[in-house]
Amino acid sequence: MSKLNKDILYLIFEELQEDSKSLFSCLMVNRPWCETVIPILWRNPWCYKGVKYNNKYYLFIIISSYLIDDIKEFITEREIQLLSGSNKSLFFDYLSFCRSINVNAIKSIISIGSTLAYNQFFMQQEFYYFFMKKCPGLKYFNMRSIKHQIIYFPEAKARFESLCELNCDTSINSIYFYGLSQFCQFIQRFIIVNINPKPNHGIVKLIEVQKNLKHFEWKDEFYDEYLTEDPYKDIFLALEKNANSLNYLRINLQYVDGIENISLQKILPKFYRLKVLIFDDYLIFTYKQLEQLKKQVYHELEILNIEGNTLDVIYSIIENSGNHLKKILFRPYDIIYFDFDDFYVESLIFIHKVYENCPSIEYLPILFSSSKEHFIEFEKLLKVCQNLKSLLLVMFINDEDDYNKNILNYGEELLKILIRSAPTNLKEIRFNHRFKFSLENLEIFLEKWKGRCALSLFTNDSIYSREDYTKLINKYKIDGVIKDFEYSRCLDYCI
Length: 495
Fold this sequence. Notes:
alpha/beta; 9-stranded parallel sheet; 41% helix; 13% strand
């Protein structure tokens, strides 16, 4: 492995670009490995977490090593602190590999040299000036809290033309976005954090000029009950112009009194190529909007996550999808709240619609009643959906007396169904506290599970932290039947 030529190594390391820990371990193998990994790591060096390389002191040494000759007089006059090693030659020309700017990360790194705002601002300005000369082309730009007018540097047009990903917020002056719109027209991933209740027309313009926008996220981080202008309307009208390319849409709107939420009737039907549709929990749907959601048709949809709605909306979209769904995500307890009166019927229909329309489903929450019909439909689903990797099972009890009498029987029945019919790919089960398994039944289940994928089990029932259960669980961890067993208050999927 260590003797593979650099071209082969490069292809292998490219596949690991999201796995920073593995890449960092490769640095220490030998020099050819190190020389191959460094350019990959330094494409976006500000993004790595939990590894030593992200230590800002090391990054400060590298940055100051580039700047020290150009601003030596300023550093001396201002008594800016340089760390040991800042004046040494670098092993690599790191910035020549870099394709990203993260304003907050760079600000944090450079602040090591001085606590004075002016000194920090000047050094940041010098860094950006040098970086824009050095960088062959930007791919990633996180400009949140930016104060420097780097788009007016002589090299800006050549550097920003290749920008693929932009992360920004609405507090930034519109003029900045007007400038970017002149030469950033092929952004593929656009993430906007809305912290200013007033419309930002510069962002609107930048969205309008895009020619290949695929991924769009909007997240509200403000609340203003006296809002007089709609901050959403122009943004989403501009987004419509990208309907032919957009395949990822994630929206998180906070409820604003007096302002009608985004008009789903006008916007959503246009995004016919969506593969990912996510509405986070702050979005408040009106009855009319919920009815419209039921009619949406997305033939290429793979991930669906719409919070704050009802099961009939979810299974209607499922029924109208093109049988490509891999993940259906929602918070079950919220669904129970919204569907309380019709839960029994709606949950049965939901399970039926899934196995009828989602042969490729991999991640799925299922709401149970303790009825025989629910267990029958659940087993049908397991037999049809052979790609299932993860299940989130939540039982809703409408007859407490019956449940208390048969509490262990329901758990036993669930385990029997899983042994009989669970697909071979299933490797994770999340179950709420309503599913109770006796020590004996759990051991029988785990014994029969041997030879399959090692299971990760998650529960919000503290009984499994008891000594007898812990002993049993540890035994099957050693045997390789259980990969993880965790107690957590929150069982919901995160995306």
